């Protein structure tokens, strides 16, 4: 039975439709991430699951029970808020046990729960402090502790790491992952950070304009995006979109990239990846999607083994990140980003031979932005 | 897993417990906020809006000692317009209001700017400038009546210093008595304007002033060209509050001049009280109260309008 | 502001001197009436007619104060303002407590449990802050009569509560707007209801605004004269009305020292509040002009 099922949920504010027939179902122990740009409806969906905002239509089931019209308190969920929302007048201990107290859990049990959670999150030494006396990371832990103490059926995390500085964010991300692995809890997690989505999720729902564009594993969403929006949203630096036209190439297909005033640039489309409707689009404009890591520098020693198509371009900007180097290269009418190894000794202005892994390239319709192949 | 595509079923009705409610919360809980507000709303509707209407109705009657509901149309208003004492009161309000607001603004903004120059003991000075605002207008009136008393007050004191010809007897002079109201009211309220301006000044971004300094502007110039324009909302609020105080002024007149000499310092507020409560002219008093309300609305509506507009755009 | 680096040239020093001169002069303008009031209140009458306003009391006496408190004539009766002073307290304390409580609940409901039309409700109530009270005097007199509480302390308490909640609601609403809604959401998820959230989460952080509201209401109601004079009888008058009667009672010799002592007595409670909690007093004054 699904731990959480969202069925055709709609939400309207006046004439504005914030959620448009959203349906999701996740199993017990799954980590679902709702990701998307601000205003895509992910927070509204989260609030609808929590019961903090009524839905216009549709149903929400937790553990098979319809909770659509239940109060937040009666849904057996806990939430970690972006601002942590710790009760300022209470100590950490009181913050953690408040939910249990409201549910009339006996004092001894409450104390035990507080100890257990504090131990788990290593905040035992903070129990008597007030939220104002805690650092950002500590508040974050307390907020999680408050959610964990109740052992609810579903946990909701609303951008819980966005108020932390970069390093702490990475640490806490790992910690949340460990916690999830250890406790096997069902989690719905909202973020606008695609790295968080990739690293944490069992299942990612990419949202835009109140729709779920794609629901799938991080691998699916990253490597098999359904459209240009999902492809561009996931991954950093984001996917390169190159305008091209689809041509016949001895029964197969090839992509011609307009390069005014330069040598022509033609990339053959791998045979094994030919999709059925490509024939209809012959000689029509399409968009070729290539991630920065789909490029690699041509290395003489590897030439023999390496797969892919060679192309040569002059380097406009070199951006070393330490772990690797990002190159900005003009390619036809657009500039693309390529990720190459840290040893690549190339300077701006030089020409460089790059190998393109067409086996992982993605083709989109230039009009609808939907994926073709 | 891709089950997010739009489905045909658009009229999904909740299946769960009970009927559809406006919010997902238990019956009583959903209504508690409204229940809690209900008495206040009822009070407001009855005691504010109802009473305004009631007073308006009274102003259309010939009521004298007791309210009667014998309607005379706008007769009381025309009586009011023909009443010399009402005109004195209205003119007085114009003189008093304009002078009070302007002088308070000038003194208040000046003191705020001066206090903003890293003054030692700023806190103490601020406390002294503002304390009159904590007093009752009755106390203010009593004190200034004493200070302005020609035989014993300031005039006598200065004469005692050897300036025998010094005259400061405005309070007994029907032409000048209205200005004594201005003095006492300014004394009471200008510190408040200072506090408003000072809070405004402290809220201005430092870097704006630094930028102006780097541009080579002199300090007075910076205040006039850069800082004061930023304080327009403060000026606006101050004018609003002061005008409001002026229109409602009643206690000060009662305590300082009693409306005298004669009725030289009558204001609409004292006029209304005198006619409604001591001269048995309830109808006329009501009409004057309605005109006072009109005066307040004339100031309030543009203020609220601009306030709401700026909130929408800001 | 005013982080100007000044070179200490003679001109700058002169400017600084002038600046302090103006500020001190202004301070004298504000403080002298209080000083004169205080000095006059401890001078014997003979010294008042002989000396000048600013002359220091030669033989300070406390007699004017005791007379003002217990014997001075206010209208027909000659038992001082002491009784009225307590009257004021008997009116002010319940009125402040009730109006602040209602205002706090209103502000909480208006900000944390918004519903369709809650903004309209607020606007509706806010209007009560602005009306000239003359427009409600006559209907109020009649209503108090119907309720059987005209000229009583209960009547005055009712009047002050009714016209005070617009302000207290404004204060609390503007304060609670700044408290994150997520706190309330978290408490809802934790299982707390309307009153419990108010009591356990909001109220413990409301101390500053409670102080502002209490001080504002205290000074407003203590200093009120209009309602006091319109809706009280001789035995329920607040001290402001008694003071005015005392000063305007025209029997016998004018005892200016007693007048001043009575004025001091009427002014003291609000002055004490101002000195003890000036910061909150200013916040209350400016709250009306600060956008919510």
Automatic annotation (TrEMBL), chain A:
Cited SUPFAM superfamilies: MOP-like, P-loop containing nucleoside triphosphate hydrolases
GO molecular function list: ABC-type transporter activity; ATP binding; ATP hydrolysis activity
Keyword Transferase applies: no
Keyword terms of this UniProt record: ATP-binding, Nucleotide-binding, Transport
Alphabetical list of Pfam families matching this protein: ABC_tran (PF00005), OB_MalK (PF17912)
Family matches, as PROSITE patterns: ABC_TRANSPORTER_1 (PS00211), ABC_TRANSPORTER_2 (PS50893)
CDD domains given in the database record: ABC_MalK_N
GO biological process assignments: carbohydrate transport
Alphabetical list of Gene3D superfamilies matching this protein: 2.40.50.100, Nucleic acid-binding proteins (2.40.50.140), P-loop containing nucleotide triphosphate hydrolases (3.40.50.300)
Domain ABC transporter: 4-234
GO cellular component: ATP-binding cassette (ABC) transporter complex, substrate-binding subunit-containing
Annotated NCBIfam families: PRK11650.1 (NF008653)
Protein name in UniProt: ABC transporter ATP-binding protein
Species for this entry: Vreelandella glaciei
Automatic annotation (TrEMBL), chain C:
Alphabetized CDD domains for the sequence: TM_PBP2
Gene Ontology CC: one annotated term: plasma membrane
Domain ABC transmembrane type-1 positions: 85-277
Sorted UniProt keywords: Membrane, Transmembrane, Transmembrane helix, Transport
Protein name (Swiss-Prot/TrEMBL): Carbohydrate ABC transporter permease
Family: Belongs to the binding-protein-dependent transport system permease family.
Membrane topology summary: Multi-pass membrane protein
Membrane-traversing stretches: 17-39, 84-108, 120-142, 154-176, 197-218, 260-282
Subcellular location: Cell membrane
One GO process term, biological-process aspect: transmembrane transport
UniProt superkingdom: Bacteria
